[in-house]
Structures are given as C-alpha cells and as structure tokens.
Amino acid sequence: MKHKIEVYSGNFCPYCVRAKLLLKKRGLTFVEYDVQREPERREEMLRRSHGARTIPQIFINGRHVGGCDELYALERAGKLDDWLQSGSH
User: In the chain, N or C: fewer CB atoms in 10 Å?
Assistant: First the structure.
C-alpha cells in the first residue's frame, strides 16, 4: 500500500533533522511543510495535531504520530511498518 508521510518542520530544528534522517534512512519519501516560512501551515498543524505546538509534527496516512521521539519509539517497537501499511497502531 502506498503511504503518505507529512512532516511539519522548521529551520534549525535538531528534532526535525533527526526525524527526517530516520525517514530517509528507511528510504521513505515525505512531504515537508515549513511552518516558519509558511505561517498558515502552523495553524494547520495545530488543528491537525489537536494543539501540539512543537516541531516536528508527523502524520502517516493522515494519522498523527507526534514528534521525533514518538517516531523513533514506533521504529524501536517495530510498529512503524504497520503504520506505513495501514496508518493504524
């Protein structure tokens, strides 16, 4: 199944860099929204993440993963592939 990964991020954000690095190492493509260059994206991120203000905020198949720590936790638990296939956990 084709996956869709969206990453809300910003410049000079070490957590954003770490999250994108994991996705790239896995060979995964993603759409990146820069909330600093596009302020309207920050409002969209807040709405979609139910108020989470920190970056990155990551979505897989429309489902909110959370930030960098949550993405790495999914990977460590072996659940990232499940999310990529179905978007559920």
Answer: N
Question: What is the Rg, in whole angstroms, of the alpha carbon atoms belonging to the chain?
Answer: 12
Q: What is the pTM of this model?
A: 0.93
Residue 63 pLDDT = 95
What average pLDDT is seen over the chain? Answer: 93
For residue 23, what are its two tokens? Answer: 């996705």
Asked if residues 10 and 34 have their Cβ atoms less than 8 Å apart, the reply is yes
Number of folded domains that form the chain: 1
- The strands making up 57-60's β-sheet, listed across from edge to edge, are 31-34, 5-9, 57-60, 63-66
Q: What is the CATH number of the domain that holds 40?
A: 3.40.30.10
